[in-house]
Write a structure and sequence with these properties.
This protein has helices at 2-5, 9-16, 24-37, 41-48, 64-69, 71-84, 101-108, 127-133, 157-170, 186-201, 217-230, 242-254, 272-276, 288-303; strands spanning 55-60, 90-95, 115-119, 138-141, 151-155, 176-180, 209-211, 236-239, 264-269, 282-286, 312-315, 317-320. The protein is of the alpha/beta class. It has a six-stranded parallel beta sheet, sandwiched between helices. Strands 7-6-8-9-10-12 form a six-stranded mixed beta sheet, with helices on both faces.
Length: 325
């Protein structure tokens, strides 16, 4: 709040407690910050005093229906829950859309939670910066495209995709496509760039790219149909998420493409659905639960005032070879 008002914490405290020796300009700035951030005076005073709400929020920038059906978010949630085990800290799950952003900021900055975990950021989402400006501790899952100085935890998406591309080249594939994630998410960009790097190393073209706007089976299916219409002779596809790979496999089966003889398929995530796919999916493993645990560890460290916390952490990935490639 002090940052939002452009004054010191002591000035904010004097204004809230109606003490003298505060300029009218500073007093107005603090009152405006309280209104903008959705604080009540009691909540603001409690925050300044360092009292805890004993709750943190997990904010997902997606529609609720997708969050509840996507195994990636379930894995993150399991990790967060595991890290909070034994602590008297409640977890608040929130889904946010652009039209309710101001209400979300007001609630999160209003003293209801001590800090925020945020995943699935899109584009220039201003929410992390708004929360940081309001003095709310925050850790983001995945590299944010904006917001220097905001702590984040991510998986090594670039090198994971590079390893997948190198594997497909090493198995003799010569027309390798990719189904990339959303263009407005760092995870989609990093995995696409890793695949492109692998194609460049092998002297292979990197023109067979189809983007899905969402990480869903239907998004993967539509992208697979697009790729096959453009290049019927493609013999491999790297899919930037296991859940999209499920849709790609569906299309390949429908068009009587034998997997992996005709088309090899590699996914990313190593969710449970990968091992139960037909055929079982070769994929790049990221430890989704560890992602949730590490994010939570970082946030709790902020709340406990630990020094020397890393500004970002990159978790390793590894290739898991199964029958699809």
């Amino acid at each position: 709040m002090a940052r939002a008002a452009g004054v010191s914490r002591s000035t904010v405290s004097r204004v809230i407690n109606e003490e003298p020796y505060v300029s009218a300009k500073a007093r107005d700035a603090v009152h405006q910050a309280i209104l903008d951030l959705g604080y009540s005076p009691n909540q603001a005073a409690r925050t300044l005093a360092g009292n805890r709400a004993n709750a943190i929020a997990l904010v997902v920038s997606e529609q609720g229906s997708r969050v509840l059906s996507d195994p990636f978010f379930a894995g993150v949630l399991r990790g967060v829950h595991a890290e909070l085990s034994g602590r008297r800290v409640q977890l608040v799950l929130m889904m946010t859309q652009q039209d309710d952003e101001q209400d979300i900021v007001g609630y999160l900055a209003g003293g209801h939670v001590d800090g925020v975990l945020m995943v699935s950021l899109h584009g220039q989402d201003p929410l992390p910066l708004k929360l940081a400006d309001a003095g709310v501790p925050i850790v983001v899952g995945g590299r944010p495209l904006v917001g220097d100085g905001i702590q984040y935890v991510d998986s090594d998406n670039f090198n994971g995709a590079l390893e997948a591309a190198r594997y497909l080249v090493a198995t003799g594939r010569r027309r390798i496509a990719t189904i990339a994630g959303p263009k407005d998410m760092a995870v989609g960009m990093d995995r696409l760039n890793g695949w492109r790097r692998g194609m460049a190393e092998a002297g292979q073209p990197s023109d067979l790219v189809a983007h899905s706007t969402v990480f869903t089976p239907d998004g993967g299916a539509a992208a697979m149909e697009d790729l096959l219409s453009r290049e019927p002779e493609l013999d491999a596809v790297f899919v930037a998420a296991d859940i999209m790979a499920m849709g790609a496999l569906r299309v390949l089966h429908a068009q009587n493409r034998r997997i992996p003889r005709d088309v090899a398929v590699v996914g990313f995530d190593d969710l449970m659905i990968a091992s139960t796919a037909l055929p079982p999916l070769t994929t790049v493993r990221q430890d989704v639960e560890q992602l949730g645990r590490t994010m939570t560890w970082c946030l709790l460290g902020q709340l406990d005032g630990e020094e020397g916390l890393p500004p970002s952490l990159l978790l390793p990935t590894s290739l898991v070879i199964r029958a699809s490639a």
